[in-house]
C-alpha cells in the first residue's frame, strides 16, 4: 500500500498558537479517506500543508512521495478544494473553466464541460451569484478536471443544505469511480462522510486517534453491556474506548481483534458515528484528567 | 498563465483604453487649434512687437483642458497604484481565492510574476500614451511659458510619468501582499507614492546631473533687492528669465574670487540702504564694476537626460519592490 500523505512530527504554528502539533500519519493511496475530527483538531492545517499553501514549522510531510507545492509537477498531482470553496465572484463559470485550462497541463476540458452540463450550471453566470452548493460544485469541477492523482477536499459540504450535500457527495463518488482518483475529505461530522468513505482517520488535537479501513474498524469494535463490572476485569485484548456505568449495569465500547466470547455480555454492533464519537470523547476525557492550568489562576 | 492574468485584468485594461480614447478625442479636437494659434499669433509676434498680448491669449486658451490634462497625468500613476496594484494580491487574500489560484498547476512565483508584469506593462503603457498625448497637446503652451523644469510641470510631461506608474503599481502590489488588506494597501500607496515623488523632486532631481555655472554682468534689471540677514546685508539677484528654458538653481552676486559684496562696500555703493533714499541705478553701476552674477543652472539641453534619469530611478525602485514581492511570496510560510 503506497501512502498518499505521510507526515512525521509535523507541526504548524501561527504566531503563538499551534494549529497542528506532533502529527504523524500515513494516509493510504487509492482510497476515499474521511478525515474526521472536532473543530480545531488541525484538519484544515493538515490539508493546507499537504497542498503546499503553508509550510511546516516542524517535521516533514510528503504527498505521493513529493514535497507539497515543490513545483508545477507536484501541484499538478493534487486537486484541492479549500474550505468555503472560494471562486472569483466577477468571473463567469466558463471563465473558471478557462482558468483551469490555462493553468493546468492535464486539464480535461471535456470532463469539465460535461460536469457543468450535468449539474445544470449556466456557463455565462458569474460565480458571485451562484448558490453555495453550485459554488462548491464549480470548485470541485475545477479540482477534478485537473485530473489529479489525489483530491483533497476541506470540509466541502459544511456550508451546504442536506440535499446539496447529497448531490455533491454523489457527484464526487461518480468522479472517483470514473477516474480512480484518491480522495481525502475532511469534516467534523462523520454523518457527512459515512456513505462515501472506505477509510477513516480520526484526528483529535492534531493526534491520530484511530485510522483504518471502515469495514475493519466496524468489525473490530463492539458495544457490550451486562452486569456492572470493573474495566480491569475485561480480557487483556479488549481495549476500552468508552465506558458508562449505572448502579447495576456497565456498557463498554471495546476494540478487539477477536470475537466477544463471554456469554455474560450482550453484544451490539457499533455504527461509524458511535465509533468516532467514542474516540473523540476518549480524547476529551483524557484531557479532563490533566490539570487544567488555565482554571487555577 | 498570461491568459489567466488577462482574464482577470481585462476589465481594468478596457477601462484604461476607454479613458484614453476619451482623452485622445478631447485633445485631438482642441490641440490643432492651439498649434494654429501659436503659428499665427505667437510665432510672428516678435516682428509685430506685441508678444505679451499674444502669449497671454494663447496661455488663456482651453484653460479647463490644460488644468484637467495636467491633473490627469499627475493623478493616473497614483490611481494605477491604488486601484490596480493594491487590490491585485490583497483581494485574493481577502476573498480566499489565493487558495484556488495557488493550488493550480502553476507555482505562485510564476503566478505573481505574470500578474505583476502584465499589470505594470499595461499601466506603464497607458500612462505613457497619456503623457505623450498631453505633452504633444501642451507643447505650444510649454514653448511660450518656457517652464519645462518647473517641479510640477516636469512630472507631468514626457517620460517620468511612466516611471511613476511603474513605481506606484509595484508599491501597491507589495503593500497588498504584505498587509493582505486592500484598503490599508491603498493608503500605503497614497502616502508612499507622494512621499517618494516629493523626495525625488526636491533632493534627487537637482543632483542627478551636476549643474553648469555661467557669469552674467550685473544689470539694472537683474537686481531684485537686498536681504537683511544676521550677517548683514546681501544682494539678491533675479533667477527668472535670465536664461530662457533653463532650470536656474541660484543666481549669486560675487566678485572674481567668488566673494559676496562686503557690508562696507554695500554701505558705500548703496548708501540708501541706511538712509532710505532709493538710488538703485548708482548702486547697480558700483556693483557691476566689481561684481558679476554667478548663475548655477541646468541648460534646456539637459531636459531629456534628466527625464531619462528620473524614469530610470523610478523603474529601478519598482523593480526592487517587485523583487521584494517575489522574495516574500517564495519564502517558506511558517
Considering residues with a beta carbon less than 8 A from a beta carbon on another chain, report the largest interface and each chain's count. Answer: A-B, 38 and 21 residues
**Total helical elements of chain A:** 10
Mean pLDDT of chain B: 90
> What is the general shape of chain A?
elongated
The helix tally of chain B amounts to 13
Q: How is this structure best summarized?
A:
Chain A is of the alpha/beta class and 297 residues long. Chain A is built from 10 helices and 14 strands.
How would you explain this protein's 3D organization?
The complex is a heterodimer of chains A (297) and B (334). Helices cover 34% and strands 29% of the residues of chain A. By secondary structure, chain A is an alpha/beta fold. Chain A has two domains: 3-205, Rossmann fold (3-Layer(aba) Sandwich); 218-296. The longest helix of chain A is centred in the middle third of the chain and has 18 residues, at 162-179. With 334 residues, chain B is mainly alpha-helical. Chain B folds into two domains: 2-209 and 302-330, no CATH class; 219-290, no CATH class. Chain B has 13 helices and five strands. Chain B has a three-stranded antiparallel beta sheet. A two-stranded antiparallel sheet of chain B has the order 2-3. In chain B, a hairpin with a 2-residue loop joins strand 2 and strand 3. Chain B is elongated and about 85 Å long. The model of chain B has no long low-confidence stretch (mean pLDDT 90). Chain A binds chain B through residues 12-13, 48, 51-57, 69, 71-72, 75-76, 78-80, 82, 84, 86-91, 95, 98-100, 102-106, 139, 142, 146, and chain B through 1, 3-4, 7-8, 11, 95-97, 99-100, 102-108, 332-334.
Amino acid at each position: 500500500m503506497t501512502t498518499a500523505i505521510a507526515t512525521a512530527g509535523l507541526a504548524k504554528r501561527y504566531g503563538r498558537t499551534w494549529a497542528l502539533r506532533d502529527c504523524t500519519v500515513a494516509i493510504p493511496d487509492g482510497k476515499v479517506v474521511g478525515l474526521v475530527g472536532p473543530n480545531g483538531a488541525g484538519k484544515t492545517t493538515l490539508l493546507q500543508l499537504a497542498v503546499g499553501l503553508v509550510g511546516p514549522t516542524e517535521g516533514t510531510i510528503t504527498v505521493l512521495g513529493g514535497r507539497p507545492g515543490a513545483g508545477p509537477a507536484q501541484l499538478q498531482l493534487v486537486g484541492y478544494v479549500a474550505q468555503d470553496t472560494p471562486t472569483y465572484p466577477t468571473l463567469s463559470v466558463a471563465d473558471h473553466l478557462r482558468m483551469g485550462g490555462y493553468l493546468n497541463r492535464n486539464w480535461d476540458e471535456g470532463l469539465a464541460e460535461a460536469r457543468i452540463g450535468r449539474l445544470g450550471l449556466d456557463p455565462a453566470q458569474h460565480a458571485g451569484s451562484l448558490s453555495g452548493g453550485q459554488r462548491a460544485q464549480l470548485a470541485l469541477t475545477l479540482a477534478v478536471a485537473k485530473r489529479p492523482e489525489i483530491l483533497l477536499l476541506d470540509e466541502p459540504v459544511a456550508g451546504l443544505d442536506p440535499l446539496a450535500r447529497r448531490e455533491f457527495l454523489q457527484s464526487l463518488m461518480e468522479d472517483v469511480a470514473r477516474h480512480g482518483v484518491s480522495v481525502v475529505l475532511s469534516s467534523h461530522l462523520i454523518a457527512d462522510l459515512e456513505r462515501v468513505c472506505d477509510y477513516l482517520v480520526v484526528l483529535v488535537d492534531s493526534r491520530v486517534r484511530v485510522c483504518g479501513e471502515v469495514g475493519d474498524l466496524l468489525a473490530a469494535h463492539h458495544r457490550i453491556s451486562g452486569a456492572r463490572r470493573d474495566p480491569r476485569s475485561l480480557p487483556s485484548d479488549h481495549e476500552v474506548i468508552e465506558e458508562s456505568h449505572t448502579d447495576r449495569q456497565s456498557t463498554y465500547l471495546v476494540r478487539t481483534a477477536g470475537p466477544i466470547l463471554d456469554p455474560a455480555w450482550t453484544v451490539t454492533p457499533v455504527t461509524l458515528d458511535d465509533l468516532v464519537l467514542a474516540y473523540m470523547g476518549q480524547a476529551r476525557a483524557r484531557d479532563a484528567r490533566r490539570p487544567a492550568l488555565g482554571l487555577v489562576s | 498563465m498570461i491568459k489567466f492574468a488577462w482574464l482577470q485584468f481585462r476589465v481594468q485594461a478596457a477601462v484604461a483604453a476607454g479613458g484614453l480614447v476619451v482623452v485622445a478625442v478631447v485633445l485631438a479636437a482642441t490641440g490643432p487649434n492651439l498649434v494654429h494659434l501659436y503659428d499665427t499669433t505667437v510665432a510672428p509676434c516678435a516682428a509685430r512687437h506685441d508678444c505679451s498680448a499674444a502669449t497671454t491669449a494663447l496661455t488663456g486658451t482651453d484653460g479647463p483642458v490644460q488644468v484637467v490634462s495636467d491633473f490627469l497625468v499627475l493623478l493616473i500613476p497614483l490611481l494605477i497604484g491604488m486601484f490596480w496594484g493594491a487590490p491585485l494580491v490583497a483581494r485574493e487574500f481577502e476573498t480566499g481565492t489565493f487558495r484556488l489560484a495557488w493550488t493550480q498547476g502553476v507555482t505562485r512565483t510564476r503566478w505573481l510574476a505574470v500578474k505583476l508584469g502584465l499589470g505594470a506593462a499595461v499601466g506603464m503603457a497607458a500612462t505613457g500614451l497619456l503623457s505623450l498625448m498631453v505633452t504633444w497637446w501642451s507643447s505650444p503652451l510649454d514653448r511660450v511659458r518656457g517652464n519645462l523644469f518647473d517641479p510640477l510641470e516636469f512630472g507631468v510631461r514626457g517620460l517620468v510619468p511612466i516611471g511613476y506608474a511603474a513605481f506606484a503599481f509595484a508599491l501597491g502590489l507589495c503593500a497588498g501582499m504584505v498587509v493582505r488588506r486592500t484598503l490599508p494597501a491603498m493608503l500605503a500607496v497614497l502616502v508612499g507614492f507622494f512621499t517618494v515623488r516629493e523626495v525625488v523632486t526636491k533632493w534627487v532631481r537637482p543632483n542627478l546631473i551636476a549643474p553648469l555655472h555661467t557669469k552674467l554682468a550685473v544689470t539694472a534689471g537683474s537686481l531684485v533687492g537686498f536681504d537683511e540677514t544676521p550677517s548683514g546685508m546681501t544682494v539678491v539677484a533675479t533667477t527668472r528669465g535670465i536664461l530662457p528654458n533653463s532650470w536656474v538653481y541660484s543666481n549669486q552676486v560675487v566678485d572674481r574670487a567668488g566673494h559676496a559684496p562686503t557690508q562696507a562696500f554695500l554701505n558705500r555703493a548703496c548708501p540708501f540702504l541706511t538712509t532710505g533714499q532709493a538710488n538703485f541705478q548708482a548702486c547697480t553701476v558700483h556693483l557691476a564694476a566689481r561684481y558679476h552674477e554667478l548663475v548655477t543652472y541646468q541648460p534646456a539641453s539637459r531636459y531629456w537626460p534628466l527625464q531619462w534619469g528620473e524614469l530610470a530611478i523610478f523603474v529601478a525602485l519598482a523593480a526592487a519592490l517587485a523583487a521584494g514581492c517575489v522574495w516574500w511570496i517564495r519564502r517558506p510560510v511558517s
